[in-house]
Design goal:
- The mean pLDDT is 78.
- By secondary structure, the protein is mainly α.
- It is elongated, with a radius of gyration of 26 Å.
Length: 134
């Protein structure tokens, strides 16, 4: 790199906008990314549990449909399945929203007080406990 190019780079860095990475905002961004990963993992776990339960219920409904002797019985089974499915999805949506609100609220409170997230602290402690002794 020529001296002229280095000088231009240095001038650019000195006049960098507030969004330019610094040690402080990098630390905040890493913390935010960690919190996001924790939230994503919790959401994924909840979604997989929900999907598993719904598949069990759906397979039971299919078995019940095959046992129906007439159209009225099939319509009754379908109606029950539809009501239960709508209820389950509404409940799951509320759970997921609650999960997100709880994480954001906890993270904001701890970061505002200058503390790291207790979830991150617990995860680090659990990871250290799983490490083999040297």
């Amino acid at each position: 790199m020529t001296a002229q190019k280095r000088a231009k780079s240095a001038d650019y860095i000195r006049g960098a906008p507030a969004s330019f990475p610094t040690a402080e905002n990098s630390r905040v961004m890493v913390g935010a990314l960690q919190e996001w990963w924790i939230m994503a993992a919790a959401w994924q776990q909840e979604a997989m549990n929900f999907a598993s339960k719904r598949l069990l219920k759906d397979s039971k409904t299919m078995r019940d449909m095959m046992d129906c002797k007439n159209t009225a019985d099939a319509m009754e089974v379908h109606s029950q399945w539809m009501q239960e499915t709508l209820h389950d999805y509404a409940t799951e949506s509320t759970k997921l929203l609650g999960l997100a609100i709880k994480r954001v609220t906890e993270s904001e409170a701890h970061l505002a007080n200058g503390h790291e997230s207790p979830v991150l602290r617990r995860a680090a402690h659990e990871a250290a406990a799983r490490m083999p002794a040297e």
